[in-house]
Amino acid sequence: MTAPEDKPFEEWDRPRQGWMLSGDCRGHRQRTLLLEMTTRALFPTVLVFSLYLLLVGHYGPGGGFAAGLVAGLAFVLRYIAGGSDAAVRLRPPVLIGLGLTVALLTALAPTVVGAPVLATTKLALDVPLIGHVETQTSVFLDVGVYLLIVGVVLDLLRSLGAGIERDMREAGETPS
Amino acid sequence: MSYLLPLPVLLPMLGAAISIVGSRSATLQRVIGVVVLAAVAALAGVLLVATDRQGPIVTELGGWPAPVGIALVADRLSALLLLVSTLVTLAVLVYAIDQRITDLGRATASTTFHPMYLMLCAGVSLAYLTGDLFTLFVAFELMLTASYVLITRRTGANRIRAGMTYVTVSLLSSLLFLTAVAMVYAATGTVNLADLAGRVGELPPGLQTVLGMMLLVVFGIKAAIVPMHFWLPDSYPNAPGPVAALFAGLLTKVSFYALLRTQTLLFPREEPWTLMLVLSVATMLVGVLGALAQNDLNRLLSFLLVSHIGFLLYGLAVFDAAGVSGAALYAAHHITVLATLFLVSGLITRRSGTVALDRMGGLLRTSPGLAILFAIPALTLAGVPPTAGFVAKLALLQAGAGSGPAEQAVAGVVVLASLLTLYALVRVWVRVFWGEPQAPVPDVDPADEVLVGTARTSVPMYAATAGLIVVSLAIAAFAGPLAGMTERAGVDLLDREPYRVAVLGEAP
Amino acid sequence: MTINLVMAATVGVLYGTGFTLLLSRSLMRVLIGVVVLGHGTNLLLQLAGGPPGRAPILGAVAPEEFTDALPQALALTAIVITFALTTFLLALGYRSFVLVGHDEVQDDVEDRRISRQKTPSAGLDDGDGDGDGEATP
């Protein structure tokens, strides 16, 4: 038992670390340096790729669900490399709720202008530096789905990954 | 009017989302739950009046026309059941909130209960309103997934077994449902119910039978039709009081609605349905005889629930406008009365600390209010005049009387099952309310959420139960207009044309 | 519509395996059964769309070469639902393991009562700590 693992668990669903990997994730003997370093490079790259998938989703292969899963996999990788405490500061259920709210508000929004629920329209805007961007309003729905899926994956890591490791620690077994 | 149609589905979902985000604030969750369900109930009332005046209301999601897009359809049947179901969910939610306040304190929020409850309501609304077989599957999944969480959350070792049985059986029926959808699509190339109504009739009779039987088995498992009922009396009694009331009130009836909708729309028949008649007799008798053998109040009620599904099936088996209309009226009555009885059972358990009938007694003296709350829904379920149960049963019996000799014989079984129901409930009354008062049994599992064996009472819990009784009495009081409306619903269901024209927008 | 025999056989094997696994006691096997059965169903949904064609993306392929996109959308939805339920079952199995030490689905109360009536001397323990599902002591 190393010192960080003996810290009392304050609240069962509150992560204690921020975005970046820190040194004291696991027992020293179990650290895999190669995986940790690779993850450091891969994690932001995969997140950016997931954002790309999210935005091209309407016209090409991709979309909120696929992008969310890719982003979720990035977190899974970091969990495997970094151990139980590597998660985001936001509680996963809140992320799920936010995603669902965004998606549902997007679904309801067209009724304000008298269109049927879930109707979409073309969205063209001029973004500085990037130029003219054309997309669909359904991208907001995809953003909601994206957040939802990321939240679900994080929740899984929390309850089935970190939760089981914690239970094992409490039972006095070493997590493998 | 049609822009109101998606709201009964989307509002509870939005409520669920907000109550996940605001899961730190118990008050926010409670207010959102009650406000959303009250709004949906109001919407359902508006839809009911509108559909009765102008026929089915249709909206196409995203503006994609049916049969390509997903259509939401409300007709008299779905609007009526939606209204009754939402009133039940509202009352049960008030009961559950108050129970949590009394037992756990005012500030205790939950990340799962309120969101899942609202998700279940969204699933129920979607199941009533969808005009599409695959969306029906999604609605069932939404509803059932929420129910899995509600039945297994915070359970101890003794309850998780029941949850496992429930989840496994439901999953099996869901996968069968998906298989049926795939087969329907392979045979016809559409999943839109209105479009299917025309296309299924063109298939060879053998294939029609296969598809019809698949859907019958799927909804039969979900609606607990004997011999596919075994999971229900095993799982519902183990759910916490309000959750059991919610399940008993809604889940089986939504499945029956789906069965009624698909069989009348896709597989019309000219004469009574013999197989359904047999299933109906089996369900009525097995259910009520099972109830007589029970010593556990909740299990007894679960068996009675199964038994009364048989009454609904009888209406469907007769397969004429009167029969279908009787089944619709009976479903509305059944939703309210079973939820009420399970809520009352929760109150009784709370008082006596046990569900075992032989360890209770004398509650008439210690809490006479509870006796009244039990007596009215019990008489309603047994069908004693002038309650709603009597009105609904009368509608069914009249439908059967105008039919062939086999149907008339089964009408006798309906009467017999009603008498046995009355006997089972009188037995409960004698054991629970008469006799010497017994001391409350101490809580077996103090760690779980449901506190039992306490004399602490709270008015809103009783008020919610009483509210449901009022709904049930209102069904009896407005039996005339209601029966008129369900008759029109029955005619429409068997005619099929109003539904098809409303969705597909073409003259036949 | 012609039927691909290999695919039909595969669906059959998946269904058979799935149902066999569903019948077992351990929730883990039930879970794998659900997954396999889910795959079988999704494959069936795909087959319902007819023979395979090109990706249904406007502009890339001529519309008559499209494969039917609807079953794919349905299958995608079904996969998501199966995924969610799989994780739920996984959590349930784990919870059962934590609470009771195994993940086996027990006999239901009625079964146990009947078997007790048949063999009164055996005094079968109901194994769930005399729960409130049990009325008679």
Description:
The complex is a heterotrimer of chains A (176), B (508) and C (137). Chain A is mainly alpha-helical and 176 residues long. Chain A has four helices and two strands, in the order αααββα. Chain A has one domain (31-170). In chain A, a hairpin with a 3-residue loop joins strand 1 and strand 2. The model of chain B has no long low-confidence stretch (mean pLDDT 90). Chain B has one domain (2-501). By secondary structure, chain B is mainly α. In chain C, 60% of the residues lie in helices and 0% in strands. Classes of the chains: A mainly alpha (176), B mainly alpha (508), C mainly alpha (137). Chains in contact: A-B, A-C, B-C. At the B-C interface, helix 5 and helix 6 of B face helix 2 and helix 3 of C.
The strand order across the widest sheet of chain B is 1-2
Shape of chain B: globular
Q: Which consecutive residue ranges of chain A, at least 5 long each, have pLDDT under 50?
A: 1-25
SS summary, helix count of chain A: 4
- The amount of helix of chain A comes to 40-55%
**Which structural class fits the helix and strand makeup of chain B?**
mainly alpha
Order of helical and strand elements of chain A: HHHEEH
Total strands of chain A: the figure is: 2
Q: Going across the major beta sheet of chain A, what is the strand order? A: 1-2
> For the residues shown, what is the average pLDDT of chain B?
90
Q: Helical content of chain B, roughly?
A: over 70%
Content-based structural category of chain A = mainly alpha
Output the radius of gyration of chain A: 19 Å
Unreliable sequence segments of chain B: none
For the sheet with most strands of chain B, the description reads: 2 strands, antiparallel
**Total beta-strand segments of chain B:** 2
What number of domains of chain A? Answer: 1
Biggest sheet of chain A, open or closed, and with what strands and sense? 2 strands, antiparallel
Strand content of chain B: under 5%
Most extensive interface: pair and counts? B-C, 48 and 43 residues
Strand content of chain A: 5-15%
Keywords:
heterotrimer; A: 176 residues; mainly alpha; two-stranded antiparallel sheet; 4 helices; 2 strands; 7% strand; disordered N terminus; C: 137 residues; Helix Hairpins; 0% strand; disordered C terminus
